[in-house]
Amino acid sequence: MQNLRYVLAEVKGTVIYEEMPSIVADEPQMTQLFQNLIGNALKFHGEEAPKVEISAARKGNDWIFSVKDNGIGIDPQYKDRIFEIFQRLHTREEYSGTGIGLTIAKKIVERHGGRIWVDGEPGKGTTFSFSISAMTDRDPSEVDIN
Fold first, then answer.
1. Are strands 62-69 and 51-59 parallel, antiparallel or unpaired?
2. Exposure check for the chain: N or C terminus, fewer CB within 10 A?
3. Tens digit of pLDDT for each residue in 9-50?
4. Per-residue pLDDT tens for 67-124?
5. Distance CA 143, CA 127 (A)
6. What is the DSSP letter of 142?
7. What is the CATH number of the domain that holds 68?
8. Distance of alpha carbon 115 from alpha carbon 118, whole angstroms
9. Domain that holds residue 117
10. How many domains are contained in the chain?
């Protein structure tokens, strides 16, 4: 949240989150992952100020994290394409960026043995969800950070 404080102030955004679980993961990569997902939620907003809700729920041996926004949404036909490098859905004039943030997010999640997916529809916001193992007895050296 500290890394995004200036963007939050600029767009008058709100981020609501509950207590997050402890996981075995590479901390800088998790920071990058959340920063990319929250940053996109703040960037791709409509007329109203962006509101982002972050949650986590245990499902079997995994934690499912969700980053939900009230933004412009996404057409379901693009749900796989957005994770490919340089695949932008908007022009640079409409929204700044390089088109690699979600590719990086996907790579981080996969390196931690999880998966990432998106739900949303145009004009109704977007929810990015990803799974991370809840196994707290795992050795941190098992996380593939390369």
1. antiparallel
2. C
3. 988 999 999 899 999 999 999 999 999 999 989 987 888 899
4. 999 988 887 666 666 766 545 444 444 444 556 788 899 999 999 999 999 998 888 8
5. 25
6. G
7. 3.30.565.10
8. 11
9. 24-136
10. 1
